[in-house]
Amino acid sequence: MRLKGIELYGFKSFQERCHLSFPKKGLSVIVGPNGCGKSNIVDAILWALGEMKPSCLRLRSMEDVIFGGTEGIKPASMAEVSLIFEEPETGRETRITRRLFRSGESQYLINRRPCRLKDIRDFFLGTGLGPNTYAVIPQGEVEALISAHPHEIRGLIEEAAGISKLEERKREILKKIEETQANINRLEDVLREVKRQADSLQYQAERAKRFKTIRAELEELELKEASIKWRAISQEVEKTSTFLKNLQEELDSIKRKRIETENGISQLELEQRELLLSLGEIKGVLSELESERERLKRGLRTLQGEMSRAWERKRHLEERSEALLNTIKGLEGEIDLLKAQITEIEQALRTKRLKLEGLELKLKELSPLVESLQREKETLRRNLLEKETERIKAENLLREAEKALNTLKAKQERLTKEKEALDAEISQVVEEFQNKSSDLKKLSDDLKNLEAEILAKRSEALNLEKVLESLRQQLQSLKAEREALDLRYKTLLTMQRTKEGYPEALKRVLESPSSFGLQEARLLEDLIEVERGYEKALEAVLGERLRAVLVESVEEAERLVRLTKGEVLALVSDQIGEDKKQDPLFTWVKDKSGTLMRFLEKVELVENLPPYFSKDKGYVTRQGLYLDNQGILWTNKGIGALERKNLIKELEERGKELGEKLAHTEKGYQALRKKLVNLKESIQNKEAQREEKEKKKLETERYLRELEAKTLVLQRKLANVKEELNQTVAEIDIWEREKGKAKEYLERTKENQIKVRGEFEEVERKLGKTLTEKKALEREREPLREELVKLEERLESKKAYLGKLFERISLTKEEQNRLEREKEDLLRQMRELAVKETSLNERLRPIEEKINETIEEIQKVEEALKAVSQGLNTLRQKERDLFDEETRKSAEASSFRSRLEALRVEMLRWESILKTFGLTPEQALQRLKGISLEEDLSRRKENLRRALEELRDVYLGAIEEYEEVKKRVEFLERQKADLEESLRELQKSVKELESRGYEVFSETMEALNEIFKDMIGRLFQGGKGELAVDGKDGHGVRIFVQPPGKRLKSMELLSRGEKTMASIAFFMSLFFIKPAPFCIMDEVDSALDEANLERFIGLLQELGEQCQFILVTHKKKTVEAASYVYGVTMETPGVSKVFSLELK
């Protein structure tokens, strides 16, 4: 497929209809001044391909694509662009058209037939013109590619790999997954609601079964419990009365004993107080005496302690004085010895110093000679090292030359073999390419036929889906109406069955008529069947009488009223006479009876009430206003029983009608749905065939591209091998000459090295002899220095120690004098302490005697007081015991009196309950004689009452309805399982598409990387290029380029021209992988210099045999290389025109 032409009308600056025809192959250029509308042609192609972003078309809004008019020309009403494609093999044309009106309406056409934007995008899938097309390069985007996001670069590669078809298929499946999930969610909502109804109905059915059993058991338990309670309470009353009488007698006896004990306690307490006063006075005197005695003893103990410490201190001072005398004698002897040692050390120092001075003089004379020899030796060593370096360098040069020669000769042999292998491989690849090209043509023809069939079936499926959607909406509407009707019908039916709003007494009569002496219980409203629209009138006249229970006699009526305590109306039945059947009010009542006639014979049906009432008859309207013969106006509000009965019948009829209509519609829907499923299966089969063909075609195309790329690579390799072989031969000649030079240089270096080594050895011998002599003198000098230092240190140490000894003697003598003075003061203090001790002992003796007398007197009083306290404690304990017993007995008696009163009240209550059953307590016990009387009846009765209260509103029809709802739940669950299985299959298809896409991308990426590397080397005349998967998330691709001679850390450091060349290399590599039908580029050559432009044009001319290239340019050299030139001008300001020129 190739681009045959473009038609523009009303698009941007192209006001009139304009047609551009393009050659089948080669390079075409579009030229013209700035601002004349050249780039608008590029925007038109991009817009026709389906671009939806105004910013990509250099617009603020999409409406700006429509020609906006000039000063003399009105704005256009619409914009239209058509792309005409042609199949080179068959000549078949395809026209793609896009229109936009000022109203905002868009139109898309294929071959002038309306279609969707999706259909146009599907048409271009796999051609390189998809959503990520690399065939249209707008102005400025070629340089931006280097800085583009890795995901954008990957999108271009995926477009070249044909993955866009897989992605579109994946999007369709994901949409189906979303729809299926939505259907599952809706089905789950319905299923939850139906399950909730089923649970409710199941619960009501179970309650209905339990209702009667519980009610019968409860009545029996009430009688049984009342009998048990009365008998138990009467027995308890008798026991409690007897026990209370005995308890009161015991309480009186305890009170008498407690009073006698209180009198004895009072007498003993008086005697105890007198003894305590006497004891307190005596103890006061004793306390004063003991205080004085303690004070004297404390003074005596203090004196004795001071005397003991004084004797200890005196002994310590005498010992210390004797030790100091011995220390002084030892120090004086040590001083004499030190003086003799100091004199000896000073004599040895003078001898050693004279010997050291002689050695230092000899060493000073040898130092200049050693330094001179060392300088000479260092100079010769440097010369020797330089000669050694030169020799090593010469040897390295020789080895390098030999190694290079060996390598080059091996390389020459390898390149020769490689050249022969490449020639053979190129011949083989060319032959295989020709075979695969014929296979590809056959696959393309098959795909076109399949595509036509799929489009036709899709159109048919689309029409069916629209019809199905209409039917589905109709079904939903019918189902919603049916569900609303069913809900209302069930609600009304439940209200009718459960008699909602009726008194409880009336419900009991209807449930169990035999309990009230009736064979059956029927209400007046059950006998009446009235025409629709007259219910409110009849309900207004009859009122509460509609709920009256029909009885056969007055006796039955009286019994019913008595048993229900007047809560239920009773109505005695009657028969109607023949002469009353034609009463006017009876004409709209279907069922007539004498009972009903009594209430209606004096009532007239009117449209509007009269202004005054009549005493002879009443008036009623259809709206439910009733004016009786007494002038009272009655009204009827809400839905009554008669109206509800008629409404239930109407709902039944309407339900049957809706059911038939729903079944008919469902049948039609299922038939169409089956037809659509079959059609979709047919489409899927065709799509599967197409996908298989496309897969084979893609593989064949990929393989052909690989063969083309492989041929190009092999040819480049062959040229490189030939060039490298020639260079290798030249390099071998150069290295042969270098090897001869290296041998001559090595011989000269060895001769110079031998001469310098002899001079170095002679100087080294002289220096060794001088250094040996110097070291001997230094060895002799070092011990002398060490001995001299040690002697000086010993002398200083001895003198310092001598000074310290003199100082210690002086301090010791001073210490001895101080001790003597302290000893004399201590003896004087000891004499004073002895006198004080004697005085204190004389004062202490009379106080001790008086204290002993007072203690004897206190012991006598305490013995008397102890005897009184013991008696008092005994009486008080007895009083407490009696009081506690009296309190306990009183509380116990009060508790039993309260309990006796409560038991008597409870006994009367149960007696009254038994009377409600028509029995005395004795009769009830006689009736239950022989039956086991349990004690836990109250709890059981309460449980039954609670259970009965919970089962108050019972719906007996719940079981049948529950079975119906259960079947519906099972049906919905099967539907849900089917949808979930479909969902799993769709998810499996998505995974398979993702796997296939990954494989295709990996294969394309590998082939593209090789071509890109080769393209960089060609356009940059060297350098490196690489495409690498982005390491951040693994879903992007980055472009890396290193121009020759540069080491860039970032692609942003490339110049504008280098960025353009790198981007061109990438785009051209994509065309090698997957040539698009055409390629249009807007001023991509603006940043290129002459050399780069020539290489770029050469590349376009090489690819021009396979693809159409259209360039918008200002470069003269580009125009010269083109086959066709299209000029864009603006003769009228704001309006673009095009002319064409074919260059020969």
Task: Characterize the structure shown.
- Helices cover 70% and strands 9% of the residues.
- Strand 12 and strand 13 form a beta hairpin.
- Helix 5 runs antiparallel to helix 13.
- The longest helix is centred in the first third of the chain and has 336 residues.
- The two termini are 25 Å apart.
TL;DR of this structure?
By secondary structure, the protein is an alpha/beta fold.
Per-chain topology:
Elements: E1 2-9, E2 18-21, E3 26-31, H1 38-48, E4 78-86, E5 93-101, E6 106-110, E7 113-115, H2 117-124, E8 136-137, H3 141-144, H4 150-161, H5 163-498, H6 504-511, H7 535-542, E9 549-551, H8 554-563, E10 570-572, H9 594-600, E11 603-605, E12 618-620, E13 625-627, E14 633-635, H10 641-916, H11 921-927, H12 937-950, H13 958-1019, E15 1024-1029, E16 1037-1042, H14 1056-1073, E17 1078-1082, H15 1090-1103, E18 1108-1112, H16 1116-1121, E19 1124-1132, E20 1135-1142
